[in-house]
């Protein structure tokens, strides 16, 4: 679900679940970072008390997200809505891993 907020310029967010059997390991983390880099907006992943840059594979890997784990994607900027749609789609498709 994407929360678009009400104030102009407010960050958009979506909650996602890691469906991959091996969690958010190197291959899906690379796909996520590569997709995030296509957008000009700022994009962050939030898991527990950690917030990391979604455009950095190393930052994503520090989350050590396991299968079934939930996190938020937060985006702010002109193309934030498109970025959220694209990134939530990756999670829904399990990053093409079945």
UniProtKB/TrEMBL annotation:
Domain HPr span(s) in chain numbering: 11-98
Compartments it resides in: Cytoplasm
PROSITE patterns from the UniProt entry: PTS_HPR_DOM, PTS_HPR_HIS, PTS_HPR_SER
Keyword Cytoplasm on entry: yes
Protein transport is among the record's keywords: no
Cellular component, GO annotation: cytoplasm
Molecular-function GO term, any one: transferase activity
Keywords: Cytoplasm, Phosphotransferase system, Transferase
Family matches, as CDD domains: PTS-HPr_like (cd00367)
Superkingdom: Bacteria
Positions in coiled-coil regions: none
InterPro entries found in the cross-reference section: HPr, HPr-like, HPr-like_sf, PTS_HPr_His_P_site, PTS_HPr_Ser_P_site
GO biological process, one term: phosphoenolpyruvate-dependent sugar phosphotransferase system
NCBIfam families associated with the record: PTS_HPr_family (TIGR01003)
Family, as annotated: Belongs to the HPr family.
Protein name per the record: Phosphotransferase system, phosphocarrier protein HPr
Native organism taxonomy: Bacteria, Pseudomonadati, Thermodesulfobacteriota, Desulfovibrionia, Desulfovibrionales
């Amino acid at each position: 679900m994407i929360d678009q907020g009400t104030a102009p310029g407010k960050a958009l967010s979506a909650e996602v679940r890691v469906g991959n059997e091996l969690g958010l390991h190197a291959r899906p983390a690379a796909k996520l970072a590569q997709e995030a880099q296509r957008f000009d907006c700022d994009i962050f992943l939030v898991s527990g008390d950690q917030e990391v840059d979604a455009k950095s594979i190393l930052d994503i890997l520090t989350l050590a997200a396991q299968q079934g784990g939930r996190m938020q994607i937060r985006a702010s900027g002109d193309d934030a809505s498109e970025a959220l749609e694209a990134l939530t789609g990756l999670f829904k498709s399990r990053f093409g891993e079945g």
